[in-house]
Amino acid sequence: MLDADDLAAIRLTLELATLTTVLLLLLGTPLAWWLVHSRSRWKGVVAAVTALPLVLPPTVLGFYLLILLGPEGPLGRLTQTLGWGVLPFTFPGLVLASFLYSLPFAVQPIRNAFEGMGDRPMEVAATLRASPLDAFLTVALPLARPGLMTAAILGFAHTVGEFGVVLMMGGNIPGVTSVLSVRIYARVEAMEYAHAHWLAGGMLVFAFCVLLALHALQPDRRRP
User: Fold this and answer.
1) Does domain 4-217 have CATH number 1.10.3720.10?
2) Cβ atoms of residues 144 and 217 within 8 Å
3) What pTM value is reported for the model?
4) What percent of the chain is modeled with pLDDT above 70?
């Protein structure tokens, strides 16, 4: 059965995934729009950096975040100057690491949705004297809803399943940084397989439900 630390890990994981998903949608949506419509020479660089977590081992990302955000790192010195302290081994540090690691899983579906929409809807909105912001909010976002939903599901699920980056960035502090994947690892390391089965089984059911949800979002392309 699950003990208090297991339940705390589940609660912390859900809080982390929820907050990360909100940030992914808020920041990933304008980024995806920019990647679709920008003609900047930096577009390729930004796209490559955004997609980097897809091919970069999570421990590498976690390691460099530790270096940058640590007490002697440039960003760590900045956060200390601002009175925020250092972010490694804190919940805000987990949020930052999770956001960066899950960013491509949110940006890519939204970008695909914007690209599939084409330019015509925005051109029509412009002829009706809608401002670019109004057209984006009332035309682009509703048309991109399937992509936004896919991004939210993938971002949430990917955050729940993270291990390497959260272990490197947060360690295993019960109630503070010990998320579900790290808790399973700790149970297995302690050879407490019965507890690990309960946690891992729940993750398995969750992953299956995510795949079902993603399948349900896919349009039926069969012709009558």
Assistant:
1) yes
2) no
3) 0.90
4) 97
